[in-house]
Amino acid sequence: MTKSLCMLLLLCFLLGCTSNYYFVRHAERANNSADTPLSVAGQQRALALRDSLKGKGIDSIFATIYLRTQQTAIPLSEEIGIPLTIYHPDTTLQFVNGLKKIRRKNVLVVGHSNTVPEMVLLMTGDTVEIGHDEYDNLFKVSVSKSLFGTRKKLKKLHYGQPD
């Protein structure tokens, strides 16, 4: 057992360990109240997110304390049997530092139009924008660590009906 573990760790360091983080803003909201649920369009987008990510091997799903982020993530959570982990959107730096410690996993993070760009910036150094009426952005951040260093890659994708 110990020899197998050592070989696995050696391969990880030589070949690299890649973690994939998928960042999305919550789907369309029903209204502008503080803890609004999703609108009908938002519920459809949440289903589209499920369909886009259900085959990606998601290991963890994070959503904020707000109903709209949780409702965006629930269809995928139920589909793959992974519970939601709730985080506070006002602790972005601490939250991202925790994300950076995740190794060889695929993670979905559902946030807000102001927190997702900040998280992508903290993860990659790249700047992204989410307009007030934009809900179809899907940012994939891949972090590969190997004996030769860390490589970060950002892909700007879309899911569901275009905005």
Structure description:
The chain is α/β, with parallel strands linked by helices and 163 residues long. It has one domain (17-158): Rossmann fold, CATH 3.40.50.1240. The protein contains 5 helices and 6 strands; from the N terminus they run H-E-H-E-H-E-H-E-H-E-E. The chain has helices at 2-15, 40-53, 67-80, 92-99, 115-124, and strands at 17-25, 60-64, 84-87, 106-111, 137-146, 149-158. The protein has a 6-stranded mixed β-sheet, with helices on both faces. A hairpin with a 2-residue loop joins strand 5 (137-146) and strand 6 (149-158). The longest helix is centred in the N-terminal third of the chain and has 14 residues, at 2-15. The radius of gyration is 16 Å and the shape is globular. The mean pLDDT is 93.
Estimate the global geometry from the Cα principal axes: globular
Largest sheet: 6 strands, mixed
Distance between the termini: 52 Å
The CATH topology: Rossmann fold
List the helices and strands and how they pair.
Layout lengths: L1 H14 L1 E9 L14 H14 L6 E5 L2 H14 L3 E4 L4 H8 L6 E6 L3 H10 L12 E10 L2 E10 L5
Parallel strand pairs: 1-4, 2-3, 2-4
Antiparallel strand pairs: 1-5, 5-6
Helix pairs in contact: 2-3
